[in-house]
Amino acid sequence: MLLQVAHEKTFFERGKKIARTADAGQPISEEKIISFEDPSDLLHLLTTARLALMQVVLERPLSITEIAERLGRDRSAVKRDIDVLADSGMVIVEEKPLPGHGRKKEVRPAAHSLRLEAVLA
Q1: Tally of domains in the chain
Q2: What is the pTM of this model?
């Protein structure tokens, strides 16, 4: 997954390139890209706490409680950060059955790696 700061023009150029690739019958890259036009929006999303959370989740899927324990943070604060990351498309939250009874919410990354890119011109 690529998180980048890019202008609207870049978005449409990438779309045209994908269309040309599809028209040529070539395979299309499965890379997931999340673009921000304003660098401050990216910085608002990627706080130090959320980056630490992403590092934990990139290691392996965990429940919200397990993530909070690993990070030494309050569960409700971790849940709020997970909600923000899920809304942005960076993590996926799935309900899983627990052995015996009950359910848990498991958090996993939306991609196997995360690349940050910001070019200010």
Answers
A1: 1
A2: 0.75
